[in-house]
Specification:
Helices cover 0% and strands 43% of the residues. With 169 residues, it is an all-beta fold. The chain has a five-stranded antiparallel beta sheet, with no helix packed on it. It has a three-stranded antiparallel beta sheet with strand order 7-6-9, with no helix packed on it. Strand 11 and strand 12 form a beta hairpin. The model has no long low-confidence stretch (mean pLDDT 87).
Length: 169
């Protein structure tokens, strides 16, 4: 059992089209959260992932409820992360352009050079392949929504390519 309360599983509503092209709701469901690092660490809910962009609106994607959100090499992923009080992610870098929106709570975005910025509910970040970690230094759960879009490797001024840095359990 977790030492910390949890937020409810996120609700996802998906629209689509009937056979004649009329807009309809095709799904309305809670998305289960996945806790790969244990009950007192971060949880993830992945709503939608496409292997490439532009994406097709013809088929309904499956929910990836038991996977750490990882961006397809040419695609996009939409997910949330809940950081429990006192939780911190490992430092990591992804080959993606990440749009981040803090939905509740507060989180510190930590860069590998030691710089930090505190983000609160209603704040946004654009994460451009930086080596980073997220830390919840408060007593409340922090929920962050992410849209991660495939991106090219970062190149330094001297032309060196910087690749992905995996999350290690």
């Amino acid at each position: 059992m977790s030492d910390h309360p949890t937020l409810p599983d996120p609700r996802m509503v998906i629209t689509g089209h009937s056979g004649d092209g009329t807009s309809i709701f095709v799904a309305d469901q809670q998305v289960p959260q996945f806790a790969p690092f244990g009950p007192n660490a971060s949880t993830f809910a992945t709503f939608h992932s496409r292997p490439s962009i532009p994406a097709s609106n013809q088929d309904l994607p499956s929910i990836l409820s038991d996977k750490i959100p990882r961006n397809p090499s040419s695609g996009i992923v939409f997910c949330t992360t809940d950081l429990k009080p006192g939780a911190q992610s490992p430092i990591h870098r992804t080959l993606s352009l990440d749009y981040c929106a803090v939905l509740s709570g507060e989180v510190v975005l930590i860069l590998d050079g030691g710089e930090e910025k505190t983000l609160r509910a209603g704040d946004f970040a654009v994460q451009r392949g930086a080596n980073h970690a997220w830390a919840n230094r408060t007593g409340e759960i922090c929920r962050i929504a992410f849209v991660m879009v495939a991106a090219e490797k970062v190149r330094t001024e001297d032309g060196m390519e910087i690749g992905e840095a995996d999350i290690v359990k």
